[in-house]
């Protein structure tokens, strides 16, 4: 086997385990992860939804880096084994030759950190980009003290800077349980759990644990609003029919409805995608060796097991491509749980709640495709975004159209906060299946990047002198 | 089989403007597209109306377009973000200044208002412009708008009048019999109409080839990007240092420029439109041009496919044979031209003639072009930056 240059994106457990295995097999491995993030990047709420209440202790970058490493023994092992580990580094784009772009040369991964940017040549790209928070809108969700479960876990377990003392949990799925266990292990009070359904989504064992901890459960309710002037001081809950409500005192509201896979890289690279009801997300189509539809680009799902790591490594090391057979993972149905939350929140909260924080667009404005308020102009006739077509395989609705008209997903966070609620809102409003939506396009860069960091500072003469000035240089050709 | 007065092939801005005007004149019109509305060149456009000082043959039609742009929001009923604050074509070094002075001579062949101004005057118009700016051409009556909103405004105005758009419905073939157009063939059946308007950029070339007609268009992939919103910097169309840059109403800087990648198209398939690391070089030039952009963030990049004719000008042509067939493509000038193109195309389709100034824009100017023109020009698929 000839060693290959492998870039692994994502130093989660599975990413680290793969990197270690590939390194042990003799490949040259670079492991890239955006964590620990700069405070400015955390405020974009990607991948984790920290909200507006980031603890000041995060400013101490050295202490944060130290505790991040201490909390990740597998990452420490990667560092010790000689893997080229790039932390606090954003992979903003990945480029390889393909249809309509054949001048890239060796595949390139665009990396950017505080020090600047580089294009890293490599053979194989393994995407182990993990999951992010799903946070639906509700009144007051922009207040400091509202955060997603993954963000809460990062503050508690990676950085040790969690400041909340009384936390209300929205949702009862596995991620909610993980968060509650971490909170309780640090003697932080869980003020209650909110569940629109009538049972604990994570199952009876979880229900027994919650009961044993004495945590109050509010079945058949959702949050009506986060209360507080400058930060969360409480939450108002409401029954699904809107008749009953109660206030809960808390200083934090953790949205723990679901996590969704980070798929912006494979999607932006043009990997074939499919909608997974189980994961409530479009995900790359992969073979049982983890290979996507793009040669030498692999996707390691968050729940991938050791057998998958082995099969993927064998393929990278030269094993024949397995007959195409999509890998299958059976998980809980995240789509219906997410849809239940969105439906309940919209039904009780109405159309005037801000759905897109970056561009201040409400649910109602989004559904009616209204132009942004700063244009000061309306529409002659109200419109719907569904397609007319004779093509039975065509999407019935393009999320990009809705995005371009309403700007939901066009703001600073590029839809990291709102795009999933937006998609499921379209599903519910127009009565179509999620797989019949053409999801909003993902674009590079995967995170907003300072111009001063990404501008090319060692441009070649070839690019400099042969830059095309449309139109007249080519006219003279 | 369904019957219409006019089939428009291509739901980009030129097709939609044509369809809107034809529907407004009372015709029964359907627009067909292999993909979604405004997903190719119309999604990559910078959004400029240029008065075409650099291509005087196009200038009369561009000036017609300028008059129509002025009332377009009201006409269509949807905002386009039209901003008429002029265009600045600036030189940031001696080489560009020499080129601009040459270009200036072609502006003089037109009757549009323009002036050549020095660097100091340009910095007065755009205070954030680099000190190294030496001067440039100012065209006061140019303007810009939001390409996606404008295409959609035409689409909605058309459907509001009862027009029909069918997306993801590729046209595989134009049908003709006895020297007359009779409709089109799609994978889902035939659609019939006595007139067919091909407004599908370089797909026009593929659809016309079976008739022995050469419409010389070369598809090319180009890239665009936006930054995060900035405070108001300027509201003109800006060209200079190898970039086109406009600031949107929201405050984002929307720019494009840089290498061309020549490609081929397939008739029934949406083309991949990958972006490349060239965005780093675009951003470097942006900072060189407007130094305070160092404080902005790179937010989003995308690519689009533009069709180029050998002289990089608009073509509008009504064929005698087969009768009822007409076509348009605009070499990347379609966005600004669209309002006038729509009127001219609808006239040609429904009346067989137009009073709009298109006499220099017919296909006849390419009658000596041979089918290997792309190779000769080094514009064939796979060529980069030629």
TrEMBL record, chain A:
One Pfam entry name: Pyr_redox_2
PANTHER family linked to this entry: ANAEROBIC GLYCEROL-3-PHOSPHATE DEHYDROGENASE SUBUNIT B (PTHR42949:SF3)
Domain FAD/NAD(P)-binding as annotated: residue spans: 5-298
InterPro entries given for it? BFD-like_2Fe2S-bd_dom_sf, FAD/NAD-bd_sf, FAD/NAD-binding_dom, Metab_Enz_Cyan_OpOx_G3PDH
Listed A to Z, the keywords are: Oxidoreductase
Task: Note whether Oxidoreductase occurs among the keywords.
Answer: yes
**Protein name as catalogued:** Pyr_redox_2 domain-containing protein
From TrEMBL, chain B:
Keywords, A to Z, come to: Oxidoreductase
Gene3D superfamilies, per database record: D-Amino Acid Oxidase, subunit A, domain 2, FAD/NAD(P)-binding domain
Keyword Oxidoreductase present in the record's keywords: the answer is yes
The record's section on SUPFAM superfamilies has: FAD-linked reductases, C-terminal domain, FAD/NAD(P)-binding domain
Asked if the Swiss-Prot or TrEMBL record annotates the protein with the keyword Oxidoreductase, the reply is yes
Do you know which Pfam families this protein is assigned to?
A: DAO
Q: Which residues form the FAD dependent oxidoreductase domain?
A: 5-348
- Highest taxon above the source species: Bacteria
Record-given protein name = FAD-dependent oxidoreductase
Gene source species: Mesorhizobium escarrei
Q: In the record, what lineage is assigned to the organism producing the protein?
A: Bacteria, Pseudomonadati, Pseudomonadota, Alphaproteobacteria, Hyphomicrobiales
């Amino acid at each position: 086997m000839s060693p290959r240059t492998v870039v692994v994106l994502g130093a989660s457990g599975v990413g680290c385990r793969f990197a270690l295995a590939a390194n042990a097999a003799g490949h040259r491995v670079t492991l890239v992860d955006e964590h620990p993030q700069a405070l400015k990047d955390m405020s974009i709420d990607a991948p984790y939804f920290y909200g507006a209440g980031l603890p000041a202790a995060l400013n101490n970058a050295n202490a944060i880096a130290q505790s991040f490493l201490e909390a990740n023994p597998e990452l420490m092992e990667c560092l010790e084994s000689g893997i080229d580990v790039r932390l606090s580094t954003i992979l903003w784009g990945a480029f390889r030759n393909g249809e309509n772009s054949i001048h890239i040369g060796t595949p390139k991964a665009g990396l950017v950190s505080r020090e600047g940017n580089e294009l890293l040549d490599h053979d194989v790209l393994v995407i182990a980009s993990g999951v992010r928070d799903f946070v639906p809108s509700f009144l007051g969700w922009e207040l400091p003290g509202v955060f997603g479960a993954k963000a809460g876990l990062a503050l508690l377990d990676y950085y040790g800077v969690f400041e909340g003392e009384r936390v209300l949990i929205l949702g009862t799925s596995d991620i909610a349980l993980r968060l509650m266990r971490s909170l309780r292990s640090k003697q932080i009070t869980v003020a209650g759990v909110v569940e629109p359904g009538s049972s604990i989504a994570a199952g009876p064992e979880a229900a027994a644990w919650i009961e044993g901890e004495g945590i109050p459960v509010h079945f058949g309710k959702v949050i009506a609003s986060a209360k507080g002037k400058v930060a969360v001081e409480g939450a108002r809950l409401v029954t699904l029919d809107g008749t009953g409500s109660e206030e809960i005192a808390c200083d934090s509201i953790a949205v723990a409805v679901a996590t969704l896979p980070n798929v912006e890289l494979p999607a932006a690279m043009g990997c074939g995608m499919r909608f997974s009801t189980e994961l409530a997300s479009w995900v790359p189509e992969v073979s049982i060796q983890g290979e996507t539809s793009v040669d030498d680009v692999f996707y390691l799902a968050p729940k991938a097991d050791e057998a998958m790591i082995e099969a993927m490594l064998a393929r990278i090391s030269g094993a024949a491509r397995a007959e195409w057979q999509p890998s299958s993972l059976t998980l809980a149905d995240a789509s219906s749980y997410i849809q239940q939350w969105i439906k309940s929140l919209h039904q009780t909260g109405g159309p005037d709640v801000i759905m897109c924080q970056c561009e201040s667009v409400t649910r109602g404005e989004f559904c009616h495709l209204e132009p942004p308020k700063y244009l000061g102009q309306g529409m002659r006739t109200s419109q719907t975004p569904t397609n007319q077509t004779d093509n039975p395989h065509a999407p019935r609705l393009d999320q990009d159209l809705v995005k371009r008209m309403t700007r939901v997903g066009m703001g600073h966070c590029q839809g990291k906060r709102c795009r999933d609620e937006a998609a499921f809102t379209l599903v519910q409003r127009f009565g179509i299946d999620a797989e019949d939506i053409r999801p909003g396009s993902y674009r590079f860069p995967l995170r907003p990047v300072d111009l001063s960091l990404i501008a090319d500072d060692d441009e070649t003469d070839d690019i400099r002198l042969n830059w095309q000035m449309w139109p007249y240089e080519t006219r003279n050709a | 089989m369904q019957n219409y007065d006019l089939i428009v092939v291509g739901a980009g801005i030129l097709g939609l403007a044509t369809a809107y005007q034809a529907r407004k004149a009372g015709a029964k019109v359907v627009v067909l597209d292999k993909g979604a509305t405004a997903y190719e060149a119309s999604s990559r456009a910078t959004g400029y109306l240029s008065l075409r000082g650099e291509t005087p043959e196009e200038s009369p039609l561009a000036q017609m377009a300028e008059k129509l742009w002025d009332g377009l929001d009201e006409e269509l009923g949807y905002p386009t973000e039209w901003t008429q604050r002029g265009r600045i074509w600036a030189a940031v070094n001696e080489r560009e200044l020499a080129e601009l002075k040459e270009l200036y001579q072609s502006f003089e062949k037109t009757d549009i208002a323009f002036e050549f101004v020095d660097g100091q005057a340009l910095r007065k118009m755009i205070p954030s412009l680099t000190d190294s700016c030496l001067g440039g051409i100012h065209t006061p009556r140019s303007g810009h708008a939001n390409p996606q909103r404008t295409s959609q405004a035409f689409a909605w105005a058309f459907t509001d009048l009862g027009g029909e758009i069918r997306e993801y419905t590729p046209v595989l073939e134009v049908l003709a019999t006895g020297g007359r157009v009779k409709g089109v063939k799609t994978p889902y059946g035939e659609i019939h109409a006595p007139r067919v308007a091909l407004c599908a950029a370089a797909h026009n070339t593929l659809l016309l080839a079976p008739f022995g007609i050469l419409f010389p268009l070369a598809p090319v992939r180009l890239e665009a990007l936006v930054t995060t919103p900035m405070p108001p910097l300027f509201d003109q169309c800006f060209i200079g240092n190898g970039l086109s840059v406009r600031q949107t109403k929201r405050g984002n800087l929307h720019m494009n420029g840089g290498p061309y990648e020549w490609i081929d198209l397939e008739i029934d398939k949406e083309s991949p439109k990958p972006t490349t690391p060239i965005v780093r070089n675009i951003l470097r030039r942006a900072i060189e041009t407007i130094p305070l952009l160092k404080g902005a963030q790179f937010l989003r990049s995308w690519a689009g496919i533009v069709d180029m004719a050998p002289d990089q000008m608009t073509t509008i042509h009504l064929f005698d044979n087969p009768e009822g067939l007409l076509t348009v493509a605009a070499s990347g000038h379609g966005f600004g031209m669209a309002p006038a193109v729509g009127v001219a195309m609808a006239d040609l389709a429904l009346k067989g003639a137009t009073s709009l100034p298109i006499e220099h824009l017919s296909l006849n100017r390419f009658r000596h072009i041979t089918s290997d023109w792309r190779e000769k020009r080094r514009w064939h698929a796979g060529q980069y930056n030629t």
